[in-house]
Amino acid sequence: MSSASAGGDARAILCAGIIVLDEVFRVDRFPQPDAKTQAQSFFIVNGGCAANAAVAVARLGGRAALAGPIGGPPGEDANGDRVLAALAREEVDCAGCQRLAGVPTALSAIFIDAHGDRMIVTHCDPRLAAATPADPASLVARADAVVADNRFPEFVRPICVAARARGLTVVLDADRPTQMSDELFRIATHVVFSSECLRATTGPRRPRRRARRHGRQDGVFSRRHPGPAGRALARRRRHTPEPRVRGRGDRHLGRG
Question: What three-state secondary structure class fits 130?
Answer without folding.
Answer: helix
